[in-house]
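OP here, attaching both records as promised.
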Amino acid sequence: MKKGIHNRIAAMLIAVLLLVLEAGGGFFACVRKASAESGEDKPIPTVEAILKGGPAISATAGVVMEVRSGAVLFAKNATQSLSPVSLTKLLTALLVLEEDNMTDTVKCSYTAINGIGSKVTRVGLVVDEKLAVEDLLYASLVASADEATYALGEHTGGSMRKFLKMMNARMEQLGAVNSNFTSATGTGKTSQTSCAYDLALVASKLGQRTDFLQIAGVKWYQIPQTNLKEARTIAQTHKFIRQTLKYDFAIAGKSGGATEDGAYNLCTYAERDGMRLVAIVMGSASDEASYDDSITMLNYAFENYRSYTMRSAERAADPDYAGFFDECKMFTGKDYDTLYIDSTATVVVPHGADMTKLYRKVEYSLPEDYVHGENVIGQLTFYYEDSPIGKTDIIYYNEEYPLSQKDFNAVWPKFLLSPSLLESTGGPGTSTVVKLTGTKKATPTPTPLPKSVIRWEGTSKQAAATRAGVIFGLIFLAITACIYIVAPMIAMKRAPKNKLRRH
């Protein structure tokens, strides 16, 4: 009897295992895909500067990138896998600035204060202390405070696990080639890796934001009094910005800390003659060497390159060329542009370059839903010979409705019923009329919309199938347990009584 029960239990466990594997097939496929992409099967692309060669630096790796165009002006071991240490905080800051408001209030959790290790940088925050996002960003970027950075990650992601997913997803969007982030701070016990090129992508995106440059460019900052602490003053850790070391063109920066092996990292922003650069140094032998390497790289870039707006570069290459999308108004008949690029977008070319060697590449990636207002529909990239020297988005301005589900939810008044609860009433062909009260982009004023023309975003087929598989698996498990475990156990309990009756 016992042997039969054991066989049934084994069969049940095998069946459940197969069911779970089938239901979670999408998950395991994603894991296999991620492993393949991060392994040897996917070669890491080479990143080279426009001009080959350049000055010698002592650091293991370094990159200089022009902030607005993303052009690489100097590169040494640009994609080599190294520890980002505190330069990780640049990515955390980018996500916080993109997702949160400066005035949002953050409450420091127990984990943010006590769960980040002992060998970290702190500014004296305590559990349950409440600070504005802006104040925590100053603490993170100016003083490199780890507890402030962790608190920001928790706040922005909802949990640290979700925030880490956001970090890696954002890196993929930026075009990173060799990064894997497992920490919001970069300190403590973490095996995360990145490379100079990937960090330059993050830094160049930040370098286009005035709010970031304001924070990362101050010598000191006073955190106001909070619910639990008096006001405190923090000092800048980047020596160019604090001016304990001198570099005239430095405008902002982030100290990078040191790895366990004593290798130093550094991020420095500098501007000269209208060209804004960011230099990433990784693996310098000392703190002083990281600043020396930064000066060497930045001076080389300033002395050998010149920046143009894309429009002026087009005219320099061909005086008779009207300009990309300049005639869009005539084409559409509108009194405003419906197709355009950023007027401040730049390209960078070597001094004395033959501008006739410039060429451009247009790539379209049309969205499934067009929201009201600006829609990115592709990219325009300029090349000098074979090197990319500038890239910008192609924008389509859509004045029409319907809105996408995301934008519709953003303008729907919170005091009204959720749009998902609204259903058509009446006979066939009728629908509920939904009135919009405004839009984040302010122009033009929204008009009433029938629900029938609103595009609703639903659960993907894969997610729905996985969810259904899990639910079915749970039901199957419960039924199987009753048949093969509960019923035989009841039978076993009754068996001795039956034997007594036979005697």
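Record two, same layout:
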Amino acid sequence: MKRKARLTAAALALLTALWALPASALALSSEDRPEETASPADEPLYNGPEDSLFTTDLRIVYNNGGTVYNNGATVYNNAGLVYNNGGLVYNNGGTVYSNGGTVYNNAGQVHSNGATVYGDGAEEEPAEAPETAETPENAEDNEGIRVRFAEDYSAFAQLEGLEEDPGGDGWLLREETGLIRPREGFSILRAESSAGSLEPDGEGGYVLKDLDSSAFVALAFQPDAPQFSPEPGTYGEKQYVELSGPAGAAIYFTEDGSEPEPGKGRYTGPITVTEGAVIKAIAVAEGAEPSETAEAAYAVVRLEAPELVSQTRGYRNLVGKPITLFNPGPTDAHIQRAELTGDNADCFQLGSTAGRRISAGTDSGNFWTVQPREGLAEGTYTAAVVFTTDSGARLEAAVSFTVEAPKEKD
């Protein structure tokens, strides 16, 4: 049953003095704070909001929003999470799991096992923290080493060798080791344990072993970066680009090459790319860190074939006409090669068959030219000039040339 923590007059006076100081002035004088064990270290430890800190050397810890596993040190804590055995915690709004320590607490939540709590508006609850005591040997259903996780990781990971505690108090390690393996589409960025060790298994998971007491495990996950379809590259017509990511993750994207942000520009369906685009995307899942940024550049070029003027039989020295590729988009286009195809392909010749990069917002000029061969008989000849791009797309331009009989003189 919950009970309101009560302030003694002396503790209230002390707490008032503590709270009157700014966060940067937490190095209190001996008159302003209870007697504490002298720190053997010259410098205190600072723990950021995304850090987990394990300390047993009696240093002073200044903690803002992070997680501290602490044995006997003094912790000045603002909204963080402290697992504390016998230490002294000054706490403003955070959550403290304390075994035998002393907590000065303002409106935070304290799960206390034998601790002394001086609070203002705080509520003290029965101990729910990772306990240092071993699991009772006479409780058959609870045999095994207890493992608790900082969050519910079921959406991101599969646990092997661990069974859910029938008492609803975490998980039980039944064997010597347990395996934490990320689900498809996710990876484990960081893995920390308050007891034993977490060792990479070489396949993206971690082996949990060498535990000798209840353990608290903190993990950080990240979804895989989004995938693009079709593949990025150069195309000859507009494209409908689809993005895909891990199950349960939302995708956010931009089309102008800027960095995507969670909550802005959510992907809901295919992206129409008419003249080219540089798409960047991230996958975001609640409880995990955003994915790495995936990038895909699309160039959409327009092909313009020349008109070859008809000639009279016996023509000579025709000049090649350019085949022009226009690239209006924001990214370079890439042509791998050019070739002639069709039944009359040998009746024409290309000025070049090599590939070429076409810069964004430009055209190919006179790099590729086509002309009929000399001495063709009367008739009409058709062929196709085919360009193969870096994406494997084939762009075709039809060419036609007619040889006429000489006109009779009057």
